[in-house]
Amino acid sequence: MGRSSASSADSPSLQAILDALDDADCRTVLRETAQPMTATELSTRCDIAQSTLYRKLELLSDASLVRERDTINPQGGRTTRYERDFDNVMISIESDDFSVTVDRPSRKADERLADIWSQMGDEL
């Protein structure tokens, strides 16, 4: 996937968030990702084909609503888990302009380091 995680500085576009939240499968994925899950686990829990699931995860990632958490396996390779990356999404209108605010959970230092590590892995 193109975008691995969202930092608190990310500002997803209003349209990206609306597109993701308008999709019933994306909403199902969001309900299931309160705890980190692999794509295989999500595909089973959400009853969505894995190829479709990856497209939904891309939509959610573009909207900074999910993040990827990679772990290195002792046998080699890595496992990617996906988790919801917001506490609250607020869409408001003021002076005929819509705006979006995404409240994110606070991250500990080790989680921020894991995000950086994950992004570095995507660059290699």
From TrEMBL:
Gene3D superfamilies linked: Winged helix-like DNA-binding domain superfamily/Winged helix DNA-binding domain (1.10.10.10)
Record Pfam families: HTH_20 (PF12840)
Protein name: ArsR family transcriptional regulator
Organism listed in the record: Halalkalicoccus jeotgali (strain DSM 18796 / CECT 7217 / JCM 14584 / KCTC 4019 / B3)
